[in-house]
Every structure is written in C-alpha cells, then in structure tokens.
Specification:
The complex is a heterodimer of chains A (420) and B (549). Chain A is an alpha/beta fold and 420 residues long. Chain A has one domain: Alkaline Phosphatase, subunit A (3-Layer(aba) Sandwich), CATH 3.40.720. Chain A is built from 13 helices and twelve strands. The N terminus of chain A is likely disordered. Among the domains of chain B are: 101 residues, no CATH class; 123 residues, no CATH class; 138 residues, no CATH class. The longest helix of chain B is centred in the first third of the chain and has 23 residues. The chains are: A alpha/beta (420), B mainly alpha (549).
C-alpha cells in the first residue's frame, strides 16, 4: 500500500511553504550535517519507536555491572549471579531474560546507555515521568511533550494522521501538544463499528460533519485526526496481518503494541514516531534476581523486541527503538528484597541505524563516594543528549533547541548511539 | 465577611440572584443544566425543568446534605450486588482458595496446556465479583439521588487512589471504598486522611505495612508466621519436615522479612494526599515522615487482617518534619499528630481546594475559586461540605466562560449518557467495561495520582471514536449492560420535532445550528421512525456538544 496521491500533493505543498517561511532555517542548517541524506523514496522514512518503562526500571539488573564486586555486595538477595548474566563486554551483561537480544548486540544493532537520566533530582514517579515526557526537567509549566514538539518543529511529514501514534487508550504526555498525534488501542477496532459497511460509512460521515462543524478546541483537532485515520485504515485492512519470518510476539499489551507498530511501518502510512507504555517496573518488594518479578517483565520486553526485529527484517534499517524510564533504582537493595526510587538508569537503543555492540555513556561506578547523594547511580548522560542525538541523527531534526527549550544540545555530548 | 452575607442571601433566593446579576446570560434552565452536569452525573429527562422550577441553589444545598435525601431505590438495587454481602476476610479466603486451586491445576496440567483453559467455578466467582465491584460504582453514579455524594466518592477514590490488582488489594479495596472512603466523603478532610492512612488497602498499596526501623527485630511469633505455609500444619510427608529443608525455608522466610524503611507512602502522602508537589517539603522530610510511620502495618495481610501498630518496628528516635519536632517514643501518636498537622497545613488546603475547583469549575481554575475554597476550609476546619458550598456559591462556578468548559471523563460520559436516556443498568460488569474501554478502568489506575481531571488526558482520536460507538450502541438499545426504552423520552415524530426534543432533553438546548443541519440531512433518507429516533439520539450523545459539561 502506498501513500495516496492526495497525501503527496499536500506534503509537497507544505514542504515548500515551510522552507520559504521558516525563520529557523539558519539554526536548522547547523544540524543538517548530522544526518545521512534522506533517501527520496517513501520506503526509507526513518521511524523512532519509544517504549516507556513506566515505574522506573532497575537499570542495574537490566544491564548488569557484573564486573563490579560492589554490585554483589550491595544486593545480596537480588543481584543476578555472575553465572546467569549474559556477558556483553566483560564488565556489563544482559539480564538472562533479555538473552533474546544478544544476537542484536552481536550484529552491532543494539547499544545500551548506562548512567543516563534527568538532571533533576526528584524521586517522585509523577514528577520524573512528567520531566521525561515534557523534556524540560525541573520546569512544570511545559504543556507539551518533546515528541510532539519534534513533530511541531519539523512539519515536512505532516501528511498523514499516522505520523505520531501512541499505542494505548490514552495519548501520553510525551505526545501531547499542537501537532496531530493519534492514540490507538486496537488497530482493528479503530473507527465506527456497524454490522453493514453502508451503515458504518454513513455514521462515519455524519459524525465527521458534526465534529467538523460544532467541535471546539481539542475536541475539534482530535476528531479531525480520527476521521483521517479511519479513512487510511479502511484501505489497510489490519485484520489480515501476519507477522513475517515466523516472528512470535508474546501475548500481552507490549507484544500487541509492537505487532501493530510493525504493521503500520510495513504499510507505509507515514508512521514516524511510535510510542507505547510498558508497565510493572516499580519493584519495591521482592524484585527477584534471575527469576521473579523483574525477570518476568524483562522476559516479556526481550521477547517482544526480538519478535519485532524479526518481523520487520530488512525494514529495521530505518527503525530505531528506544527504551526509557523516569529514573533508576537504589544501588543497595531495600529491606523488602526490592529497590527504592533512585537516580540514573539504563536505556536501550536498537535498530539498523544504531552504532551498537557497546555500552555507551560514562560509567560513574558504584562506590558510595561516586554515587548520587551516596545512594544512587549518578547521572552522567542527560537524557536530552540521547534524545537529541536520535532526533538529529536518525529523524533529521534540525532545530533541537526548539524541542528542548532551555537546553543547548551539543553534538560533542551525544552518546554516540547512531552510526555516523 | 462580604462573602458570608452574599451566601446567606443566595440560600434564600430560588435563583443565584447576585450571580445572575453578574452573568445575565444564564437562564434558570441553563443554571440547572450546568449544576446537574457538575454536581451530578448529568440530568435525566425532566431533571432540568424540575431543578429550575424548584430553585437551583435549593437543589445544591440539598445535595450538600446527602443523608437527608431518600435513596431507597438505589438501596434496593444495591441488594443485588453480592460483593456487598462479603467482608474482606471472605474475599481473602476466596482469593486464597482460587490461588491454591490455580496452583494445583497448574501442577496437575503439567504440560497439558488445554487443561487450564476452562475457568473453574471458583475462578469464575472471583471474576464475577471483581466485575460487580466496578459495576457497582457505575450503577451508584447512575441511579443514586445523592448525586453530589457519588461525585465526591469518585473524587476521593482518585485522590486517595489504590490499585485493586496489587496483591492483597484485591480483597482490601472493596472494603476500603465501602468503609474508608464512602462514610467520610462529605465529612472532615482530616478524618478521611487519617482513615486512609490506617487502611490496610493504602498500607498495602504504598508498601508502608512493610516499612520498619532499620535493625528492628520482629517478635518470635511473627517470624514463625512469616513462613510461606501458614494456617496449616505441615503434613507427615511434607518436605518442610525435613530438617535441612526446614532450615532453608526458615532462612528464606527471614530473608523476606522487611529490614528497613520504605518511603513510598511518605512521599505520596506529602506530594499527592496533602501538601502537593510544590508544597515546600524536602527529600529529608520524606524520610522523616517515613520514619514516623514505621510500624503502621497490617495484622496478617494474607487473611485480610486489620490495621495494626507494630511497636517493635517503630523508629523511636526524634524526627523533624517541615521544621516541626516530633519527640521520639510516642509510637502511633506521632503519626496521628503528623496527619493532623498536614491536614490543616496551608499548602494542603490550597492543593486540595485547587483540585476541587479543577473538578467542579475549570481544568485551569480561577484563583478566586481556589481562594474562596481555602477561606471556607479555614473557617470550617476542613469541612468538605463547606468547602464545596463556597465553590458552588462563588461567582466563578457560574461564570459563562466556565459553563461547558470541561470535557467529561469516560466515567462521566458513560453515566451521563445512561442517565440522559433513563437507561437501567444491570448487575453485569458490561457498563463498567465500556468505561474501561474509553480509558478509565475503575480502581485500576496503577499510579497513586488517580485518574486525571484535565481534558488533554481524555480527548484523543481513538477515545473519541469509542465514545461515538458507545453512543450509537446505547441509542440502538444494543449496549450490553443496560436496558433503554426511548419511548418514555422521545416520542416518534417528524424530523423537526425529533431534533427539538433531543436538543431540549439531552443537550440542554445547546445543540448548534450545524448539528441541527447534519441531523436533518441524516434523517432525510430514513423512513422507519424507530431507526430515525435511534440515529438522532446516537448522534447527539456521540456528538461534540454532549462531550462537554
């Protein structure tokens, strides 16, 4: 399926318009060189998939510093034993339940960034999630999210309702804002439902007219996006989708979300930014080690990501998946065989454009003297430097300071997640 | 002072006279419609003229005294809910039974994946009760005459959110709603705060039950109870009889005993329940609060025990919170004193008043509304009714810019739609499932902040389409979980009559010209009057006007 002619015409018009009038043209030029030249075909449009590990994942048990005795000393009950860790570079290793990702590491399309996080010290989930999504740590007044601001600042691709899609019942904060974005809970059930197609079309048209004429504010914008999406999905027929290469998505929300993301990527409907929540990381009590609560969640994540890359196959050359979380957890296990809210965590970046096979970022060490407030892994990479690198080098964003207001992204600080 | 005089005048008048002078745009009908949208889950057919004729302020004041409102019809419906007949210990026993059965079935199945497909009667009963629990909230919201009270129950349920699917909260949460939240929803904030702090549901949800002073040693009896097998003597062939195994079981049980403080409750107490995130506390305050609450625990949580203070787990040293010294050694009184301090703290008054104004007036409430509420809070020592009264009698509540300024949450949308057509909900979980599909599964908000009030959280293209679908199904009588008889509301007539009645009864007269035109066009090709009526009602409820309140 290809993008309709109408869409191309609209796109061309917009692109010309924005080139001619864009006051940010000079600022953009500064970043133009960080991105390989975009190919002219629709097929190679880059895609960024963001998975939010909501609840603060324990980075230390996800990307395990098994080479550090302090790790084992501080976590007598929940450390992943040396023998179980899937070694990556002699010092760090994957949690065994992420073993499905090891081939991606070996083929250099998976990188981990450790000691990454927010410059703000809050240990509140809500504040920290808010800052991660708004992209303005410490500033509460920001109303939109950084993924939405990316879509705002670079409107060349605003030719499809599927440009920015969150998979879930609600649009997350990170995609809130003036650029159109879509929340889809179930691709197949998206749209008006009626037994006969004639009735469905009639209802769709009637509601479209009602909202076009009478809705105000957010209701108006959201309904417009809804009806555009309904038209495109009608042509797509998602009920017929079969994953390629015998990819086996795990049952559950994440597996379903990634399957639908893969489907939209392959359908070439113009998806550029996809988002999904992955919950269950707030392991205060009985976190477990090789097995247990966290292991179960990581197993689901590893399997889902492995299925996603298998399903997309060659298409992964245009795709980057980022996992992120609001903060990490305490180095020392707590009294309940769990971990409490900490500071830095680890994030994963995988996909064709990734410069993988490396644990990126400056590792601060686990010694109490090197920790943040004596208890947590210190942040050595501001998450905005990682996000900025992905936006600039992968999606081709040119004006990063508009996406991260109050922050001056500096390519010298980029962790190096994307191949030059 | 001035406010008090205005208030007393208002209560005498049948219309908000002083307010009407300032905002002449609101007719008695409009005022009634507005009040029914905000203090209630929307009007039923006939409610608007009834409240308008009776006097909207009089209706509001009656809603502020729910105990004097007769609610027999709801009480009758409530008797059909089995969930209300069980205490939390019954629910805990059922849960344990279901768990044990599942374990046994898994063992027996060993490789046979088909075996655990059919749900057992025990599992089915658990599922049915869980469904009933969510549905009960929807049924009460739809049918209760004490509408404001039900709105406030929802407000506090979110303010003091717990997550029903977290372990023991499966059986603690129904009890929490019935006996902690509901009896205090219109009382003193302080009482509600203390009750939630002591509730097993909250203690479990935010882990405080396991928070102990570092180095504290539980008494021997508790250590034995910490074994994985409780309430049952090991059988003769039980592996735990083997001394070596027994030793490792004991060691593991000891390892699982809590060994330190847990800051979770302390942090959310300050950030969400009381002061608010900008309330001027520090990380050190969070730690000190957590130390004060060490020992606030649950007696045998797996059997749904009650609150219990463990003096052995309590940190007996001095603490200092927000600059206030808490002398050590006062056990539970320290926590009570702290909760009272927090309940009456100016930051708390402001934070909670603002949330109430967000709920009742505007997502971005005017400062005047918050100031009025805070003043009433101070005057009344945190009497929730008086705070609400100040909001409803204040000019901001009636200001034209705040009328229809809020988008309904999924719960508000579904319940107001059901009320608009006199739909009768049954005891099946279907209607609650619609609320869940629209993004608000009840009692299942994982994070302690509860469901959001702002429209940005609810308005997105997918959810809007779902609302349209639910509306069409409801009007066609095909929404499972409710019975709708449109005859009593909208008689079959010609297009203009139909549109006029739907505008008046369902949209409170807010139907736009565009909507009227679209409806006329849609009706043009339909001969069957029953179908025509279902279409107009469905489009009206799924359309843009009905999404607002």
């Amino acid at each position: 399926m290809s993008i309709s002619r109408r869409v191309f015409v609209k796109s061309g018009g917009l692109a010309l318009f924005s080139l001619g009038l864009d006051p940010l043209f000079l600022a953009r030029a500064a970043f133009a060189s960080y991105r390989p030249l975009p190919s002219s075909t629709a097929l190679s449009r880059p895609v960024l998939v963001c998975l939010f590990q909501r609840g603060a994942v324990d980075g230390l048990n996800m990307i395990v510093p098994h080479g550090d005795p302090i790790y084992y000393r501080e976590r007598p009950r929940i450390a992943v034993p040396e023998k179980d860790v899937v070694d990556l570079d002699g010092y760090f290793g994957l949690h065994p339940r992420l073993a499905a990702l090891k081939p991606l590491w070996d083929s250099k399309s998976l990188a981990a960034i450790h000691a990454v996080g927010s410059p703000d010290a809050t240990r509140s989930h809500f504040d920290a999630q808010d800052y991660l999504e708004s992209g303005t740590p410490g500033v509460k007044a920001t109303t939109d999210g950084w993924l939405n601001r990316y879509c705002q600042h670079d409107r060349e691709h605003e030719d499809t309702p599927f440009r920015a899609v969150a998979f879930g019942p609600q649009l997350p904060r990170i995609l809130a804002g003036s650029a159109p974005s879509l929340a889809i809970d179930d691709l197949q059930a998206f749209g008006l439902r009626a037994p006969q197609p004639v009735v469905r079309d009639r209802l769709t048209r009637a509601f479209e007219e009602l909202y076009a004429g009478s809705a105000t504010g957010l209701l108006s914008a959201s309904s417009r996006e809804a009806f555009e999406a309904v038209q495109m999905l009608k042509r797509l027929d998602p009920g017929q989708y079969r994953p390629a290469n015998e990819a086996d998505y795990p049952r559950g929300k994440l597996g379903k979300a990634l399957l639908e993301i893969a489907q939209l990527i392959k359908a070439d409907v113009g998806l550029q930014v996809a988002f999904a929540d992955v919950t269950g990381w707030d392991t205060h009590v009985n976190q477990g080690a090789t097995e247990g609560q966290l292991a179960g969640r990581l197993g689901d994540l590893g399997q889902a990501l492995a299925a996603f890359t298998r399903d997309l196959g060659e298409r992964m050359r245009d795709v980057v998946v980022l996992t992120m979380s609001e903060f990490g957890r305490t180095v020392r296990e707590n009294g309940n065989s769990g971990t409490d809210h900490g500071h830095a965590t680890a994030m994963l970046v995988l996909g064709g454009p990734v410069s993988g096979g490396k644990v990126l970022g400056k590792w601060p060490g686990l010694d109490p003297a090197q920790r943040f407030e004596g208890r947590d892994v210190a942040v050595t990479t501001d998450f905005r430097d990682l996000f900025a690198e992905l936006l600039a080098r992968h999606l081709g964003a040119r004006d990063l300071s508009a996406i991260f207001p109050g922050f001056t992204p500096d390519p010298a600080r980029f962790p190096g997640a994307i191949s030059a | 002072m001035k406010t008090a005089i205005v208030l007393s005048l208002l209560t005498l008048a049948s219309l908000p006279a002083g307010v009407a002078a300032q905002h002449a745009a609101l007719t008695p009908q409009d005022s009634a419609f507005h009040a029914l949208n905000r203090l209630a889950y929307g009007p039923r057919p006939g409610d608007v003229p009834r409240v308008a004729a009776d006097g909207v302020i009089r209706w509001i004041d009656r809603q502020l005294a729910p105990e004097r409102i007769d609610d027999d019809r709801l009480a009758e419906r409530e008797r059909q809910f089995h969930i209300l007949a069980y205490g939390r210990a019954d629910l805990a026993a059922m849960y344990t039974e279901a768990q044990r059965e599942r374990r046994e079935r898994k063992l027996a199945a060993a490789g046979d994946t088909m075996a655990d497909q059919a749900a057992s009667p025990i599992a089915q009963r658990g599922r049915r009760l869980a469904g009933e629990f969510a549905d009960l909230a929807v049924v009460r919201a739809a049918l209760s005459e004490r509408q404001l009270y039900e709105v406030m129950v929802d407000f506090w349920t979110n303010h003091f959110n717990v997550y029903v699917a977290k372990g023991a909260d499966r059986f603690f949460t129904p009890d929490y709603i019935e006996h902690t939240i509901r009896p205090r929803a219109m009382g003193k904030f302080e009482d509600l705060l203390i009750a939630t702090a002591r509730s097993p549901a909250m203690l479990f949800y935010l882990d405080n039950w396991e928070s102990v002073a570092p180095g504290s040693v539980p008494p021997a009896g508790l250590r034995v109870r910490a074994r994985p097998i409780f309430g049952r003597r090991p059988g003769l062939f039980d592996p735990t009889r083997d001394p070596a195994r027994q030793d490792s079981v004991r060691r593991r049980a000891l390892e699982r005993m809590p060994k330190g403080i847990n800051e979770n409750y302390a942090r959310e107490l300050l950030e969400l329940h009381t002061l608010g995130v900008d309330g001027g506390y520090t990380q050190q305050d969070v730690i000190e609060v957590a130390r004060i609450f060490t020992g606030w625990s649950i007696e045998r949580p797996q059997q749904a025990g009650d609150f219990q203070f463990h003096d052995w787990a309590h940190d007996r040293r001095e603490k200092r919170v927000l600059g206030v010294r808490f002398e050590g050694g006062h056990d539970m009184d320290e926590g009570i004193r702290l909760l009272k301090l927090l309940a009456g703290h100016p930051a708390t008054m402001h934070h909670v008043s603002r949330q109430l104004c967000e709920r009742f007036v505007n997502d971005d409430p005017p400062d005047g509304c918050v100031d009025d509420a805070v003043a009433a809070w101070k005057r009344s020592n945190g009497d929730i009714r008086e705070v609400l009264r100040a909001i409803f009698h204040g000019p901001d509540f009636w200001a034209a810019e705040n009328v229809r300024a809020k988008v309904k949450t999924p719960l508000e949308f579904v319940v107001s739609a059901a009320r608009a057509v006199f739909a009768q909900p049954d005891t099946s979980p279907r209607l609650a499932q619609v609320v869940a599909r629209l993004g608000e599964p009840l009692y299942l908000h994982v994070a302690p902040d509860g469901y959001p009030e702002r429209e940005a959280a609810w308005v997105n293209s997918g959810a809007l389409l779902d609302r349209m679908n639910a509306a069409v199904a409801l009007a066609a009588g095909k929404l499972q979980g409710v019975t709708v008889v449109l005859d009593s509301i909208v008689s079959v007539g010609d297009a203009e009559q139909l549109i006029g009645v739907v505008n008046e009864k369902i949209l409170g007269g807010a139907m736009s010209d565009n909507t009227k035109q679209v409806l006329r066009r849609q009706l043009a090709g339909i001969d069957d009057p029953i179908q025509a009526r279902a279409l107009v009602v469905g489009l009206a409820i799924g359309g843009p006007e009905f999404q607002r309140q």
